[in-house]
Amino acid sequence: MNRMRVFVGLLVVIGVLLAARGEPAQAPKMGGTLKVATQAVPPVLDTQAGATTATRLIAIHVLEPLVTFGENYSVVPMLAESWQISPDGKIYTFKLRQGVKFHNGKELTSEDVVASIERFLQVSVRKPAFRILSSFAAKDKYTVELMLSSPSGSFLDALGSPAGELAIMPKEIITGKAANAFKLPDEYIGTGPYQLVAFKPDQFVTLKRFKDYKPFPGERNGLGGAKIAYFDEIHMDFMKETGARVAAVESGEYGFADAIPGTEYSRLSANPKTKVALTKPQFVEHVLFNHMNKLSGNLKFRQAVLAAMDMEAIGLAITSGTKELLRLNPCLWPRESVWHFESAQANELYNQKNPDKARKLLAEAGYKGEQVVLVATREYDSIYKTMLTLADQLKRVGVNAKVDVLDWPGLRARWGEKDTWHISTTTYLTPVLVSPEAWGIFWNSESPAPERGGYSNPEMDKVFKDLSVTQTVEQRKAKLKDLQRIMYETLPHIPTAEIFDVSLLRSDIQGFNGWYTNRFFGLWSDK
Amino acid sequence: MLRYVIRRLLVMFPTIFVMVALIALMIALVPGDPVSLLIGQEASGDAIAAKRAELGLDRPMAVQLLDWVIKAIHGDLGRSYFLNQPVTAAIVERYSVTINVTFFALLVATTIGMPVGVLASLRQGSIFDWGAMTLSLIVLSIPSFWLALNLIFLFVVTVQWFPLGGFVPLSEDPVEFIKHLALPCLSLGLAEAAIVARITRTSMLEVLRMDYLRTARAKGLREGAVVYGHALKNVLIPIVTVIGVSAGTFLGGSVVTETVYNLPGVGRMVVEGVMRRDYPVIQGGILVVTLTYLAINLIVDLLYLWIDPRVRYE
């Protein structure tokens, strides 16, 4: 009996010890196909000529730039193994990695880099960011030199930006190629871990593992580091219907689906067949003002709107009441970014929820109950819900608010008009993650974007000008603090809550980490 | 009859002209253009202006329209801004999907709807009649996206009999072709079957009371011959009318079904063209949808001649 007890006791101890060890970390497995259901429909694949999110999702798997962005949004090497900046800040010398192959089997050399830059300057939608690039040349087979007309703090950011990326492609293909003129899939060639096999506009894209891919040493780091293609093939279906994307993963047929609504978060979190992953943050709704209009061009009126706003309520409206999917952040840069900082001014002014102060400011603004038009679109749920919630908050402080709904192109056209709207909103965040001064689209008086709503401020313009020649991280951060200070002082627009993106994975898919853009390298199936 | 067909074909021209004018008016009135959607939010002002010039959007609307009409007469419907292919090629590619969906959805509708309608009329007031008509009313009341999503939940997520969506051509894999089309056709066909069943029942009830059927029975004809040989033939006109209208609608594209099941059909293409201001797709797509409606109308009118010899077109 005693022996039996000792034996059973030993079994229990062994069991407990085994359980305490936990699941052994599984080594990534090669092989299989990852089917992806994505809402993003790329209008074109030519990432040099187009800066849309959907184009980027495909390009980051196939093409690579000289430098790119790490997990904390600082610049890291990619096809360049290192670079040097001359003491006057005007000459950038890039040393290329040796032995890197294009998908057509040719080795990457400095000639390809020069040809890619030449073509980029012809077709890019980001040409203004490269105005300071005065010349560039191949110094030897693996060295490229770029000369600037003036020192710049943001040139490396521009060089590595994944939106409208300066992707390096083979010289013989890219030379003289007009925008979007690649023969697909044969001419869409880069050095990335996957190569393009098929693309049907509006339908699907298929990528296969590039067997000669030379990964960067080390771990995966944002869009840099080691980008290992574990899946043999990635097949992305462009699926606009949310319910279909969810069903795609729940059925087990697909391994990944993006842009899952907050309403599904709890249910899917409890489903053993699926895993829910968050990207923190994915976007922020920015309340825009029509500065050309007398009422909304009045600072006191905008301050009244800010005083009335409840950011959490707006965030909850967007996430359908799911608290886990939002975060309040008065800073214009999220905590995950190297550019994030704390500010007493921002902490005081953001999320005031102060109706009395709002009413007082409205009176000071000379508001007499005239109709305030908020314009929205239903095409982007977050825009629509932000405007509905804000209209409600403004009504509570006595504003005669009305929401006009248009389609997306119609909304953008409306932003250019003077008297037909006062307040609107747009979804924005990712550009400032990789280019901290990308707020210029809203605030720099040189910006042609309708989102600016006619805002113009010489002090703000000067900070942008200073930023363009400021080089060190510390100095740039000081200028970014100036930008945010002026933003809260003059309210060209108002940031609301940070919203997280929900992605859905089949339970066997491993290695996913929600970030700036979804990445399918580094993912594998443990089935 | 040939003269009638020629006359109908000639009448199509003013209809098409009116449609083209309406499309042009719509494009001129609706604000927004495709450039910012095409090249992204970070595009510079110069890039936007250059793209507008490249697409010819900087020209007056009347010039753009005239240019399109002249090219359309020569069979060139322009090039889509977003699909990276000529609109004609895009329409041909997507029409094969739409035609297949339409054909099989109508097959589902008629094979379910007509027998149910006939049986319900023959057993008027029975539990079957009551049940079939109640069920048809329920199916008709269900929004198409809700029915489609529930079919996905049942057949894709739960029992996993069918794939989620997409389209596989018949020539590529006949089994996958059927599997991929089954749910969309069922979604569309069930609602249509409900309409066909109700129309068939109502029309049959009218005909079944006619004297010539009493005479047929008095002659000693079998009930089957009475119902299918005499009664059903005389209710075909309203049924064909309903099916013709549905065929026109389906061929114009069933946007909801195509979106939920991720089918690359004509309807989805046109609607997405509108959402992103892909003007050549909007103009070309609507032109083809209009022609389809006109053609279906003509076919249905000609079918009347075949079904009922008393019909005469002057």
Q: Outline of chain A, from the CA principal axes?
A: globular
Proportion of strand residues of chain A: 15-25%
The amount of beta strand of chain B, in percent, is: under 5%
Beginning-to-end CA distance, first to last residue of chain B: 8 Å
DSSP helical segment count of chain A: 17
Number of strands of chain B: 0
Could you give the count of β-strands of chain A? 21
- Cα-atom radius of gyration of chain B: 24 Å
Structural class of chain A: alpha+beta
Estimated helix fraction of chain B: over 70%
The major beta sheet of chain B can be summarized as: none
The average pLDDT of chain A is 91
The major sheet of chain A is characterized as: 9 strands, mixed
Structural class of chain B: mainly alpha
Q: Note the gap between the termini of chain A.
A: 44 Å
Overall average pLDDT of chain B: 87
Topology pattern of chain B, helix = H, strand = E: HHHHHHHHHHHHHH
Radius of gyration of chain A: 25 Å
The greatest inter-chain interface is formed by:
A-B, 54 and 46 residues
Concise overview:
Chain A has about 525 residues and is of the alpha+beta class. Chain A has 17 helices and 21 strands.
Describe the protein.
The complex is a heterodimer of chains A (527) and B (314). In chain A, 31% of the residues lie in helices and 23% in strands. Chain A has helices at residues 2-21, 53-62, 110-123, 155-160, 171-174, 242-250, 265-269, 299-308, 311-318, 344-349, 355-364, 381-396, 408-414, 430-434, 440-443, 458-469, 473-490, and strands spanning 33-38, 67-69, 75-77, 80-85, 91-96, 133-140, 143-148, 194-200, 204-209, 220-221, 224-225, 233-238, 256-257, 274-289, 326-327, 371-377, 400-406, 423-428, 493-506, 509-510, 524-525. In chain A, a hairpin with a 5-residue loop joins strand 4 and strand 5. Chain B is built from 14 helices and no strands. The termini of chain B are close together. The interface between A and B is large, with 54 and 46 residues.
